[in-house]
Structures are given as structure tokens and as C-alpha cells.
Design brief:
36% of the residues lie in helices and 21% in strands. The chain has helices at 17-27, 43-53, 64-72, 92-101, 116-129, 143-153, 173-176, 179-182, 190-193, 198-214, 307-311, 323-338, 351-369; strands at residues 5-11, 32-38, 59-60, 82-86, 105-108, 133-135, 160-168, 220-226, 237-243, 249-255, 264-271, 275-279, 286-289, 296-298, 375-376. Residues 19-137 form the Gfo/Idh/MocA-like oxidoreductase N-terminal domain.
Length: 379
């Protein structure tokens, strides 16, 4: 009998990019087996999609309630053990809560929920459920981001002085300027996306990355958002000033109207002794800069890297690793946790990271709405 963890998926069917990303990631280390789920609202399409994947339709259900009911009747060794939630934002909370209450492990796309209050409820539910919960802040899985985290923790750049993080995309630019289109996509619909588009979609990645890599927590922020048109209720661009402490400041810039940009996600952290720079579009290069010294370039797979970085490296030095690998590393960490194996706390973001993200989103929107003022995050 297969010892792989049985994985169910909610959403992610048809031509979903996020669906492909999660399926490839789940299969990467031979730890998970995708066995079913609810891939589409249309049951017929969902069953056909499962057949096309080659997994059969035995464990394909009409909806989440039917999945929980059907799986709960099976012997423990035959049940779906963990469920990945890849649906639009507004469905995350109710789905995750039901799954936790019925004993399932959960892997959830970000943002965790549509409100911070919902996120806190999920935290309490998880405490009672005592299962594993991961939030897929994908970029934390990159080997050189993990190396960056470990170098900072070891004091290699000295006390942090400045954090600069940017996430620029341009995909929404042709949509936002067309009234019919901007009023027809779910990303710009508050009922489905929550109170934020850009900040919730990619700004929360940047926020998580800033805290994950630096080991610091944002105490206060001041935000200035851009909605572009009076009839558009969702932000599509924003700049956020960050205060980690009295003398450690940062800036977070996120935009989905950066014309021509694809996925320009960069982070720069400067300490008293040195600085570190990384960009998602060239993820194999981590730059260390020091005054009076030549630039040092670190790459994955070499013995000089940390154990956390090397554990997430699948190829010999010189072979590019990308976003599939990054997501795969997160799934690998979740598998270790589910199996009760030893794992590094940096291997996958958890529910507290997701809740922090929701707190960040709400505070950014509030800061902007109140006239671009400083507001405090919960700590």
C-alpha cells in the first residue's frame, strides 16, 4: 500500500496556473498523492478533469460537504488526509474551518481569509484541531531566500538598518482602464476578493517575506494606495512605509499596474556590516555587498550554504530552480510535519503567518482610508 500522503484539492481545475503549480509541487518529492477533491463547481467538469489527470473520479465530490461526509466514512488509511484550498479568497475561511473541524490537515492559498477576524477564528479552530496548517507564501521556499534568512539570523550583515521590498506586476494595467473589464473580474470584486486587491494578492507576499527573512516584526505602517478610477473599489497599486522599531525602517512597494512588468519581486536588507539583495526573476543569485569589498554572489547547491537552504535544493550547482521548486519545498515541509518528522520552523508558513498577513492588509487599507496615517499592527 502506498505510504504517500493522500491529498485532495479544492479548485485549481481546468487551466488554472495555481492548480498546476500546486500539483507539480505536491508530486515533487514523492511525498503526496493527489487522489481527488472538488476541482470545479460543475461536477461533470470536475470528474472529467480528474480522469484527464489520470487519478480517476472515485474521490471527486460535488462540494466540500460531500467530500467531508464521504471521506469520514472510510477507514483512516483510505481517507484524504490533507486538503489544498485553491479557490477565490472569499471561500477560504468557510472551507478551512470545516476541514479543521473534521480533522483534516490544510494547505491554503493566500490571503488566508478576507478579514483578520476570520483569520483569528481559524487560529482558535486549529488550536482545537491540532492538525497541520500551511499558508502558501510561495517565495519562502526558494533556497537562496532561506539562505538569506539564515545569514541574517547568524549576524552576517550585522544589526539591520533598512528593509526595501518591491513586488511589481503589470497584468491588471490593460484591465483597469476598461470599465467593463474592471467591473467583471473577481480580483476587483470586494464580495469575492475582500477589501484589497493588490495588497492582498502580492503585497501580502512582500510583507511576509520582509518578516520571514529579517526575523523582525512590523510594529507600525503608513500606507498610500491607488484605486485609479472612482468606480473601482479595489487597490491596484500601493506604497507602505514600515517601522520595525524606532531605528529600523522599511518601505514596501506593490503594484499590478507597473506597465510591462511580469513578476518583479525583489528584497534588499541592509545591516551595519553588509547588505543582501535577491530578485525572484533571477532566484539563483543572492548578492552580498560590503563597503570596500567586491560584490559576493551566492548560489544554491554549494556546501557554503545553510542546512535549511541545502534541504530545499534539488539540483546540482548551476542548474536553475524556480517557483515550482519553491512551492515544492513548502509541500515537503508540510509532509514532514504531517508524518511527525523533524523539520525546521522555516520550512512552511503557518496559520499565524496567514493571520499576520490579514492584519497587515486591514491596517494598510485603514491607514490609507484615514488619510495616510501611522497605524499599529497587533504583535
Amino acid at each position: 500500500m502506498s505510504k504517500k500522503i493522500k491529498l485532495g484539492i479544492l479548485g485549481g481545475g481546468e487551466d488554472s496556473l495555481i492548480g498546476i503549480l500546486h500539483r507539480v509541487a505536491a508530486n515533487m518529492f514523492d511525498r503526496f498523492e493527489v487522489v481527488g477533491g472538488v476541482f470545479s463547481r460543475d461536477f461533470k467538469e470536475s470528474r472529467q478533469f480528474a480522469e484527464d489527470l489520470g487519478i480517476g473520479s472515485k474521490k471527486v465530490y460535488k462540494d466540500l460537504d460531500q467530500l467531508i461526509e464521504g471521506e469520514s466514512k472510510l477507514p483512516a488509511d483510505e481517507r484524504i488526509q490533507v486538503v489544498s484550498i485553491l479557490t477565490p479568497n472569499f471561500l477560504h475561511f468557510s472551507m478551512a474551518k470545516k476541514l479543521l473541524e473534521n480533522g483534516f490537515h490544510v494547505i491554503c492559498e493566500k490571503p488566508l481569509t478576507t478579514t483578520y477576524g476570520e483569520a483569528k477564528i481559524l487560529e482558535d479552530t486549529l488550536n482545537n484541531a491540532k492538525t497541520i496548517f500551511a499558508v502558501t507564501y510561495t517565495y519562502s521556499g526558494y533556497p537562496m531566500i532561506r539562505q538569506m534568512k539564515e545569514m541574517i539570523a547568524a549576524g552576517e550583515i550585522g544589526e539591520i538598518q533598512k528593509i526595501d521590498i518591491q513586488y511589481y506586476q503589470g497584468w491588471i494595467n490593460p484591465i483597469i482602464h476598461n470599465e467593463e473589464q474592471r467591473n467583471s473580474i473577481w480580483r476587483l470584486d470586494p464580495e469575492k476578493s475582500g477589501i484589497s486587491c493588490c495588497i492582498a494578492d502580492i503585497g501580502t507576499h512582500a510583507f511576509h517575506m520582509a518578516e520571514y527573512v529579517s526575523g523582525l516584526r512590523v510594529e507600525k505602517l503608513l500606507a498610500d494606495l491607488n484605486y485609479m478610477y472612482p468606480d473601482n473599489k479595489m487597490d491596484v497599486d500601493g506604497t507602505v512605509l514600515l517601522r520595525f522599531s524606532e531605528y529600523v525602517k522599511g518601505v514596501l512597494r506593490a503594484s499590478q499596474t507597473a506597465t510591462g512588468e511580469e513578476n518583479d519581486f525583489t528584497i534588499k536588507i541592509y545591516g551595519k556590516k553588509a547588505g543582501l539583495k535577491w530578485g525572484q526573476e533571477s532566484p539563483n543569485y543572492l548578492y552580498k555587498i560590503e563597503e570596500g569589498q567586491p560584490i559576493k554572489i551566492l548560489k544554491p547547491g554549494h556546501g557554503y550554504n545553510s542546512a535549511l537552504s541545502l534541504d530545499g535544493t534539488k539540483l546540482p550547482p548551476g542548474h536553475p530552480e524556480g517557483i515550482f521548486d519553491s512551492m515544492g519545498n513548502i509541500y515537503k515541509g508540510v509532509a514532514k510535519a504531517i508524518k511527525g518528522e523533524e523539520y525546521h520552523p522555516g520550512e512552511f508558513p503557518g496559520i499565524k503567518d496567514g493571520a499576520r498577513g490579514m492584519n497587515f492588509i486591514e491596517k494598510v487599507v485603514a491607514s490609507h482610508a484615514e488619510g495616510n496615517v501611522w497605524v499599529s499592527l497587533d504583535n
